[in-house]
Amino acid sequence: MVKLIIIQQPLVKLEIEMAAGSLREEIFSDLQANFQYQNKELVLEEFQLVTQGATVTGQGVLDLALSETPYLNGALSINRLDYQVFSDWLPAVLPVSGKISAELNINGSLQQPEIKGEINSQNTIFSYQKTDISLDDVALSFGWQKGQSLVIDNLALVKDETVFDC
């Protein structure tokens, strides 16, 4: 006789901890991530990546049960990450160097996400047609939704003691 076992609403947890390693040639000194899945909901309880003096942290929820389109609610924090990291992951070279810090919130469906946040860039150099534009600090508050224009709420540029704020 075969007995049928039915498991309803299982809870699946995944914890990742690495003291050192690399991702696509980017060396990190600490990686931690805790995931949980239950009732069509994937929760990233904690994410932390420490690399070359920079820290990236985040958490979020991907709800697969709300509708036909999965819904995302999450936050990402970046502290003093070198722009070179992005160049290593993108097919084109970024025309900017320096260190980026950011606080980002992502909400909405995967088809229509909304991203709001603040970005701060230190010791920034923009390269354009063999000309370098150097700034001490760039601060930007923004909002963006797929299919719509980027809305810049505030932009501040600092060079030496001169501040351009709009």
Structure description:
- The protein has 166 residues and is mostly beta strands.
- It has a domain of 110 residues.
- The protein is built from one helix and twelve strands, in the order βββββββαβββββ.
- Strands 1-4-5-6-7-8-9-10-11-12 form a ten-stranded antiparallel β-sheet. The chain has a two-stranded antiparallel sheet with strand order 2-3.
- β9 and β10 form a beta hairpin.
- The termini are far apart.
- The model has no long low-confidence stretch (mean pLDDT 89).
Primary descriptors:
166 residues, 12 strands, single chain, 4% helix, ten-stranded antiparallel sheet, mainly beta, elongated, two-stranded antiparallel ribbon
List the helices and strands and how they pair.
Layout: E1 12-18, E2 21-23, E3 26-28, E4 30-38, E5 41-51, E6 54-63, E7 71-82, H1 84-89, E8 96-109, E9 113-128, E10 131-145, E11 151-159, E12 162-165
Antiparallel strand pairs: 1-4, 2-3, 4-5, 5-6, 6-7, 7-8, 8-9, 9-10, 10-11, 11-12
Concise account of the structure shown:
This protein has 166 residues and is mainly beta.
Runs in which pLDDT lies below 50 for 5 or more consecutive residues are none
Rg, alpha carbons: 20 Å
Instruction: Describe the global form.
Output: elongated
Number of strands: 12
Structural class: mainly beta
Please give the order of strands in the largest beta sheet. Answer: 1-4-5-6-7-8-9-10-11-12
End-to-end separation: 76 Å
Following the backbone from N to C, one meets helices and strands in this order, namely: EEEEEEEHEEEEE
Main sheet summary: 10 strands, antiparallel
What is the tally of helical segments?
1
Portion of residues within helices: under 10%
Overall mean pLDDT: 89
Proportion of beta-strand residues: over 45%
